[in-house]
């Protein structure tokens, strides 16, 4: 600001000089023009430099904003990654799917059985809370019906389907009264578990529409889950 004031003072002094000294009219006009133009140009250059020069505080703010944007972009990229659900390489198809105890249905009387076909899991839920997760193997070629069902009266220790040449233990019906069941991994005509079919548990579909479970999980449903319990397949 002081520089600008000083330049304007110089302009005023120059004008006064040319008015008080006798010079030829043409010279006087030319010198007066340059005396005015030169300081104005210098003032304009200085003002332009100050206008484009960032203040320390604005530079810090710009750096902070840039850093924040980069963090937000990294967070967004991380949050957009799809979580892939992987099963253990070796699933014990004879044992419970989890090390924790099965839910106490006297404490959780309003459970639902959610069958997730994509994840090959059965989630024992109460409201939005998952109480227990079971490994499953559902129907090949999307043969397990989707929708809302309920546990039915039909249940038993074992069955054998001669058309499929396979059976299972601890079956519990949830649709069409004995057609679509929760049951163990399959057994052969002699009642022995078929190991190569059992190996699909928790990893891929393998049944003709029923929901295969580990021996322990199927037995728990057979013995504890009451008729009328909601079943959701999706």
Automatic annotation (TrEMBL):
<dbReference type="GO" id="GO:0008360">
    <property type="term" value="P:regulation of cell shape"/>
</dbReference>
<dbReference type="GO" id="GO:0071972">
    <property type="term" value="F:peptidoglycan L,D-transpeptidase activity"/>
</dbReference>
<dbReference type="GO" id="GO:0071555">
    <property type="term" value="P:cell wall organization"/>
</dbReference>
<keyword id="KW-0573">Peptidoglycan synthesis</keyword>
<dbReference type="InterPro" id="IPR050979">
    <property type="entry name" value="LD-transpeptidase"/>
</dbReference>
<keyword id="KW-0808">Transferase</keyword>
<keyword id="KW-0812">Transmembrane</keyword>
<comment type="pathway">
    <text>Cell wall biogenesis; peptidoglycan biosynthesis.</text>
</comment>
<keyword id="KW-0472">Membrane</keyword>
<feature type="region of interest" description="Disordered">
    <location>
        <begin position="66"/>
        <end position="88"/>
    </location>
</feature>
<keyword id="KW-0133">Cell shape</keyword>
<dbReference type="GO" id="GO:0005576">
    <property type="term" value="C:extracellular region"/>
</dbReference>
<dbReference type="Pfam" id="PF03734">
    <property type="entry name" value="YkuD"/>
</dbReference>
<feature type="active site" description="Nucleophile">
    <location>
        <position position="210"/>
    </location>
</feature>
<feature type="compositionally biased region" description="Basic residues">
    <location>
        <begin position="68"/>
        <end position="86"/>
    </location>
</feature>
<dbReference type="GO" id="GO:0016740">
    <property type="term" value="F:transferase activity"/>
</dbReference>
<feature type="domain" description="L,D-TPase catalytic">
    <location>
        <begin position="111"/>
        <end position="234"/>
    </location>
</feature>
<protein>
    <submittedName>
        <fullName>Putative L,D-transpeptidase YciB</fullName>
        <ecNumber>2.-.-.-</ecNumber>
    </submittedName>
</protein>
<dbReference type="InterPro" id="IPR005490">
    <property type="entry name" value="LD_TPept_cat_dom"/>
</dbReference>
<feature type="transmembrane region" description="Helical">
    <location>
        <begin position="30"/>
        <end position="48"/>
    </location>
</feature>
<feature type="active site" description="Proton donor/acceptor">
    <location>
        <position position="183"/>
    </location>
</feature>
<keyword id="KW-0961">Cell wall biogenesis/degradation</keyword>
<dbReference type="InterPro" id="IPR038063">
    <property type="entry name" value="Transpep_catalytic_dom"/>
</dbReference>
<keyword id="KW-1133">Transmembrane helix</keyword>
<dbReference type="GO" id="GO:0018104">
    <property type="term" value="P:peptidoglycan-protein cross-linking"/>
</dbReference>
């Amino acid at each position: 600001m002081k520089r600008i004031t000083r330049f304007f003072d110089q302009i005023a002094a120059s004008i006064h000089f040319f008015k008080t000294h006798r010079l030829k009219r043409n010279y006087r006009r030319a010198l007066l023009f340059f005396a005015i133009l030169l300081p104005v140009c210098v003032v304009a250059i200085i003002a332009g430099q100050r206008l484009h020069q960032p203040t320390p505080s604005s530079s810090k703010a710009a750096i902070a904003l840039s850093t924040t944007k980069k963090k937000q972009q990294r967070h967004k990229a991380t949050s957009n990654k799809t979580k892939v659900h992987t099963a253990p390489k070796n699933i014990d198809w004879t044992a419970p799917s989890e090390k924790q105890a099965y839910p106490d249905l006297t404490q959780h009387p309003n459970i639902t059985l959610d069958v997730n076909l994509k994840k090959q899991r059965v989630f024992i839920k109460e409201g939005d809370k998952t109480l227990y997760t079971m490994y499953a193997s559902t129907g090949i070629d999307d043969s397990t019906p989707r929708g809302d069902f309920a546990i039915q009266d039909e249940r038993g220790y074992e069955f054998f389907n001669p058309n499929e040449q396979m059976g299972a233990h601890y079956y519990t019906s949830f649709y069409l009264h004995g057609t679509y069941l929760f049951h163990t991994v399959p057994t052969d005509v002699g009642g022995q578990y078929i190991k190569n079919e059992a190996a699909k548990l928790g990893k891929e579909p393998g049944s003709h529409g029923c929901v295969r479970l580990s021996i322990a999980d199927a037995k728990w449903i057979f013995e504890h889950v009451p008729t009328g319990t909601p079943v959701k397949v999706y």
